[in-house]
């Protein structure tokens, strides 16, 4: 049986779980009253349950069915979290109890980061080592360059641009966004390279458009974070006389409260305050074409590793 880890920042399934979620983020320190009040307000403003939790669980179900059918093998997808149960080590332990013989990691975010994708992978290997089980691990990566994925984002970008008025379309800019990372560009070389390459590919897939890179959700000083901040870029474009801005997120493929505010509501408010039209691209979430693309890519990578190990066709034994 093949066990696939789907890593995620956290699954908040009730308003009551917001406080322990933030307490874990702050290394066991409860959030202050005002911070907690603001966090709860943001979640409630969505008017729905936390989409990161509900969509991630649907993604896991869809990927499990599709990848299993493609590999003609038993596949189970396990969600492992950084800041809420089930934590990544817990998911790995469950894999072992279920009899998993091969492990794969499949982040539903296209861009590699040391603190995100890299940290999840290390947790998986550390958990296996602690348990004392030697299982091969396949890291499914690089799908940011998959043509079908680029086309999915390109079509959504075209839809967002078309939503602008005729006047707005006459002078707009696309801001490709990603969660900022701590440190200078030299310390995040792989991330920066993939981010820029994906942005260029999506812009071409959308038919060509003026674009810039921008970052969101950076932490406070004195820690250095990658920039420029997306709100500062919107202000600069407005000062230059630009009529409209379209934000296209390239890191979070799944809606969550952070990206909905930092690449959505906050950007809309900044643009509106400066007299600019604003639009953003839709998230892929668990759209059929996204799940199908990711499943096929994952199946190919697992098959490739099977051939390398000499185990193709016998994984179920």
From TrEMBL:
Q: Which SUPFAM superfamilies match?
A: Chelatase
One of its GO biological process terms is:
heme biosynthetic process
Q: What GO molecular function annotation could you give as one example from this UniProt entry?
A: ferrochelatase activity
Name residues in a coiled coil: none
Q: Which residues cross the membrane?
A: none
Q: Which Pfam families match?
A: Ferrochelatase (PF00762)
Q: Which PANTHER family match?
A: FERROCHELATASE, FERROCHELATASE, MITOCHONDRIAL
* Family as reported in the entry's similarity comment: Belongs to the ferrochelatase family.
State the protein's name.
Answer: Ferrochelatase
